[in-house]
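Q: Could you write out the predicted structure for this multi-component system? I'm mainly interested in how the pieces pack against one another.
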Amino acid sequence: MLRYALKRLGSLLISLIVASLVIFACIEVVPGDPASFMLGINAQPDTVAALREELGLNAALHERYFSWVTGLVSGDMGTSYTYRSPVAEIVAERLVISLPLALYALTLTVLIAFPVGVLAATRRGSLTDVSVMGATQLGVAIPNFWFAMLMVLVFAINLRWFSAGGFPGWEAGLFPAMKALTLPAVALALPQASILARVMRSSLLDTLGEDYIRTARAKGLTTRQTLWRHALRNALIPVLTIIGLQFSFLMAGAIIIENVFFLPGLGRLVFQAISQRDLIVVESVVMLLVFAVIVVNFLVDLAYAWVDPRLRARV
Amino acid sequence: MSEAGFLSAALRSRNLMLGLALTAIFAAAALISLIWTPFDVTELKIAEKLQTPSATHLFGTDHFGRDILSMIMVGAQTSIAVAFVAVGIGMGLGVPLGLTAAARRGSLLDEVIMRGNDLVFAFPSLLIAILITAVFGPSAFNAIVAIGIFNIPVFARLTRGAALSLWTRDYILSARVSGKGAARISVEHILPNITNLLIVQGTIQFSLGILAEAALSYVGLGVQPPTPSWGRMLADSQTLISLAPHMALFPGFAIILTVLGLNLAGDGLRDLLDPRIRRVGR
């Protein structure tokens, strides 16, 4: 297990290094130089020169890359040109909204998908199965931001159960804050829950066809006992991988959904930074998101190997 | 399966028929809009703005008085074109990469290709799009590139996986014995045998491409005005949603039905072409 973990850790580090190089290169290929790009065409030459100095653009390419990366590692993401404050601080402020939102959505996804998937698989071919699968087909096809807009129309504008957007802040209390995140989380969870329910169903159907299930039934366990003790546990392995992948979709999806609900999270930060040409913020936030995705998938791989020893041997 | 047998099985598949019908409707709408739309989508008639659906304007009008049905028809062009080219990029680069990785399985090249794929996979397409637009500015072209890049690892993985199992077959061995090189075997023997898989995955990526294009245009990173696009129409409708919900409903339905159609067609095709194939990546 340790050898496997070390090997995966090695490829994790390589992925992170390559990702940072790619992101750094993207910002480097900005037409012209980043300073005049950020200031626009009407900037005075001395302002541009001052910003170049401030951004450290006069240093050599590799020096800049290393100072960016060592900064990231030590938690220093540079200073935002437009906000005039450290990027790390701005990101931390935004993260307390985006991360809970993604986790909230992930929880909803699992809570919806598990029972639905199990129900469909245990009643395979029944009317329940067919209608549930039809519903998930629809869930996959609905753009989540459109669904979000309709929920705003129904639950915020017409019924007035929720506010149409904005975030009261965690200091307003757990309940109001969670309430503000509820519609966004539901919108994010809908397509992901549909996908996960389908995976859950097909994975459970696969396991239910295994020999050990027949053995369990033959030794006198009831259908319910077989399901809980044997089938579900084994069916969860592929489901776990999908959940890991979904985390990255939720992080990315949150970027769009935050814009629907005017939530001051990372997503809105990125868009504001793009429109203000604040490349330092864009660069750091994208790196942070990619880092999160790579690390989560690494953890899922480890969990996977821990659950299923056969995988460790296959490195 | 004989040709007639295939056809009758296809006609009996409800998913496939429904999916193809839905897809055909939107493809037809896009084609017809090239030569005719009920109203001109570039003409602004403020006097007729925000009309609810009526006999003249079947789906109503938007905040500039443009006919929504006409805009959806022209928007179908945008969606289909963007998704089509993006899938083309994904297949065009991903399939050769996957074939190469499989032909040189276990080599350093294989490792580099597959790790590169993992890396692209770690960037959700939206992040790629954000990076690209931050640097080059928003445009339809950049949206296509962003969605296309994300498609590459999907096809590379699928191709490599399927090709690997084919490389162990006897007919490949006999081709090797007859002196054919790896490249020639890949093109002449492997590729024709994975076309089914590629078509099915292509349909699914096509529908994901339509969703991605809508999302990018919705946040303003995709197709730029005045080109009508379903995502932009939804963005325009957002602030007016309580006043004119029809502005949000119809483009939304267009997206859902197209994506649903493609997914059903993909599922139906998969069941028909090879009942053993499992959908990859979702």
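A: Regarding packing and overall arrangement: Residues 152 and 313 of chain A are 50 Å apart (CA to CA).
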